[in-house]
């Protein structure tokens, strides 16, 4: 990706503060996400990564500071507000109902109803349309080997579940997709599949925020890396100019970044 | 610092050409296929048990059992439990339990009777008041479970005692006689009206039970609300994160359960003829029995309302069949107990399905 100096960030956080009692999880933290990029957020346990992400996805309401989307200030009160604004989050737990089918899970909370009398008065779901949509979205991401769109999610492997969760986010996330530890529970081959899915989604032009502890994955995918430390953004580094050991050293405080390394 | 220790980075930075994870079906074997079929259609087990018990008693008892009259008698005997069990199924699908169903049904029937006879309210209006009462108590249960985050077992255990005591206090333990109802408020007995089709005797209550099961089966399978009920029972946190209004779903389920119980109270007047505050004491346990035998998981999110219907019928078939065979009534309870444990064992086995 070429860095244009005049690019405007799509999603920003300014001066975000979040306190839990006497603990300050976010300490005047800034954040920028540019269109079309994969931004990785790394940081030690307890550095405040998840609080930052939750503030952006509406799961946490920051005490101070503002979040802007497309240049407009937004105030998300719940994850649903963020979803309506086009920000989809794939949680580490995936947030799927294991006993329900792939289609049901993809449309949970935003089901399609049949047109006319049967939808309006009998509240009947438009299953053929939902199934077609779900199948198309899975095909788009190369998950064609899932044969039966109506099989229960609990009968899928870990990688397939992650794939369905990513497909759900990609299908409905029009502005931003947030992925929380997408490969944490997966084996080597399944991780590879999910990483390819993420690149596929990026190639459609939707920017992605990737939270991960897996440095090889972060360095392979990310266009920029946001290093979080002690509730603040320590620096933003370009994975092409830094090594993984540098990143870990910044993250843990073993090394201090020489200058303001933010390329944008 | 191009030392050897940095070499691993160049290795992982290159795209590796590993074979991607394959998502294909592997072989299951016969028992695996059975497990898979049961997983997809959970009401299959109670249906098989129902058909098997019908055949068994048919062979043992012949035409005494296999007559339109005897078979429809089973329907009449299970109608109250069947209706209450439908309400219980909804609650258990959300991983809850409702111990107050019987008390709500009886108290609703008392409200219908007393409103008509004590206050002189038109019986049709009194019926509506009784239905509204049941819905209100159910909604209160739901509010306590969803908003106050109290365990459903505790909420409904308390509500059971409260409603039952209120029932005796309000009715002053008086029974309204069948003749009085028939003379002054026949609509209260409407659910008991009988009609005959070629030797088979049906009541309005039986028709209501069958229609209720059909409507609920449709709602659970083909509406967003029904899918939300399953999602909430399966994993409430996941449902919430996916955008389901968990609290409203829970309150609607408990309120609907209360309304269905009130209908059961109306059917109860039709069945016994009178309004008796002491009737229906075992409905909560009997409805849970029907739900469990019907294959609905007590852990929520699994099972179908048709299974509950079959479960109620299985209990009815065993009760009538063993009575006609001249067996001690305790044999019925013993066999029902065996069925309950077997049903839960099968549920645990189905849950282990992974492919």
Q: Domains counted in the coordinates of chain A: how many? A: 2
The CATH superfamily of the largest domain in chain A turns out to be P-loop containing nucleotide triphosphate hydrolases
CATH-defined architecture of the largest domain in chain A: 3-Layer(aba) Sandwich
Q: Beta-strand level of the residues of chain B, as a percent range?
A: under 5%
What is CATH's topology name of the largest domain in chain A? Answer: Rossmann fold
> Which descriptor suits the 3D outline of chain B?
globular
CATH fold-level name of chain B: ABC transporter involved in vitamin B12 uptake, BtuC
Number of helices of chain B: 15
Structural category of chain B: mainly alpha
Oligomer: heterodimer
Beta-strand content of chain A: 15-25%
Give the topology string of chain B: H per helix, E per strand. Answer: HHHHHHHHEEHHHHHHH
Taking pLDDT < 50 over at least 5 consecutive residues as the criterion, the unreliable ranges of chain B are: 1-5, 15-25
How large, in whole angstroms, is the Cα Rg of chain B?
25 Å
Strand count, sense and barrel status of the largest sheet of chain B are: 2 strands, antiparallel
- Helix/strand order of chain A, N-terminal first: EEEHEEHEHHHHEHEHEEH
- Number of E-state strands of chain A: 10
Uncertain segments of chain A: 1-5
Provide a count of the helices of chain A: 9
Count of folded domains of chain B: 1
Q: How are the strands of the largest sheet of chain B arranged?
A: 1-2
Pfam family, one (chain A): ABC_tran
Keywords (chain A): ATP-binding, Nucleotide-binding
Protein name (chain A): Mannose ABC transporter ATP-binding protein /fructose ABC transporter ATP-binding protein /ribose ABC transporter ATP-binding protein
Organism (chain A): Limimaricola pyoseonensis
């Amino acid at each position: 990706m070429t860095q244009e100096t005049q690019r405007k960030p799509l999603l920003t956080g300014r001066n975000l503060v979040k306190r839990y009692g006497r603990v300050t999880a976010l300490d005047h933290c800034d954040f920028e996400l540019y269109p079309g990029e994969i931004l990785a957020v790394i940081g030690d346990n307890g550095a405040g990564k998840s609080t930052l992400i939750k503030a952006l996805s509406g799961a946490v309401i920051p005490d101070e500071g503002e979040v802007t989307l497309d240049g407009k200030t937004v105030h998300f009160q719940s994850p649903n507000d963020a979803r309506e604004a086009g920000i989809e989050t794939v949680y580490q737990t995936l947030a799927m109902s294991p006993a329900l089918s792939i289609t049901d899970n993809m449309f949970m909370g935003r089901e399609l109803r049949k047109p006319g009398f049967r939808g309006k008065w009998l509240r009947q779901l438009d299953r053929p349309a939902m199934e077609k949509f779900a199948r198309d979205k899975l095909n788009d991401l190369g998950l064609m080997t899932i044969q039966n769109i109506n099989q229960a999610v609990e009968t899928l492997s870990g990688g397939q579940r992650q794939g369905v969760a990513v497909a759900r986010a990609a299908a409905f996330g029009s502005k931003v997709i947030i992925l929380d530890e997408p490969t944490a529970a997966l084996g080597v081959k399944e991780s590879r599949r999910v990483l390819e899915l993420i690149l596929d989604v990026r190639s459609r032009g939707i920017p992605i925020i990737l939270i991960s502890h897996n440095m090889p994955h972060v360095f392979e995918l990310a266009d920029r890396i946001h290093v979080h430390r002690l509730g603040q953004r320590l620096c933003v580094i370009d994975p092409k100019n830094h090594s993984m050991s540098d990143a870990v050293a910044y993250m843990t405080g073993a090394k201090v970044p020489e200058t303001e390394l933010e390329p944008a | 610092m191009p030392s050897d220790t940095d070499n691993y980075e160049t290795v992982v930075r290159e795209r590796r050409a590993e074979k991607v994870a394959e998502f294909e079906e592997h072989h299951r074997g016969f028992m695996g296929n059975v497990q898979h079929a049961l997983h997809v259609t959970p009401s299959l087990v109670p249906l098989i048990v129902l058909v098997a018990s019908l055949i068994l008693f048919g062979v043992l008892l012949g035409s005494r059992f296999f007559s339109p009259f005897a078979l429809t008698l089973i329907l009449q005997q299970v109608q109250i439990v069947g209706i209450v069990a439908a309400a219980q199924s909804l609650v258990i699908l959300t991983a809850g339990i409702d111990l107050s169903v019987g008390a709500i049904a009886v108290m609703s029937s008392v409200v219908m009777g007393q409103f008509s006879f004590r206050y002189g309210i038109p019986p049709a209006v009194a019926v509506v008041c009784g239905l509204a009462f049941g819905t209100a108590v159910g909604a209160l249960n739901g509010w306590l479970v969803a908003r106050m985050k109290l365990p459903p077992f505790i909420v409904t255990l308390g509500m059971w005692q409260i409603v039952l005591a209120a029932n005796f206090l309000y009715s002053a333990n008086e029974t309204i006689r069948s003749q009085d109802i028939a003379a002054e408020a026949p609509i209260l007995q409407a659910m008991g009206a009988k009609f005959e089709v070629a030797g088979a005797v049906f009541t309005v209550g039986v028709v209501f039970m069958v229609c209720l099961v059909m409507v609920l089966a449709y709602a659970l399978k083909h509406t967003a609300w029904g899918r939300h009920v399953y999602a909430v029972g399966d994993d409430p946190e996941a449902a919430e994160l996916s955008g389901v209004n968990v609290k409203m779903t829970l309150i609607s389920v408990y309120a609907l359960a209360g309304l269905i119980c009130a209908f059961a109270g109306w059917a109860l007047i039709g069945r016994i003829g009178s309004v008796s505050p002491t009737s229906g004491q075992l409905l909560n346990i009997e409805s849970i029995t029907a739900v469990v035998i019907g294959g609905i998981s007590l852990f929520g999110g699994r099972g179908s309302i048709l299974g509950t219907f079959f479960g109620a019928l299985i209990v009815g078939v065993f009760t009538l069949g063993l009575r006609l065979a001249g067996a001690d009534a305790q044999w019925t309870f013993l066999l029902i107990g065996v069925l309950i444990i077997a049903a839960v064992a099968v549920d645990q086995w189905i849950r282990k399905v992974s492919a």
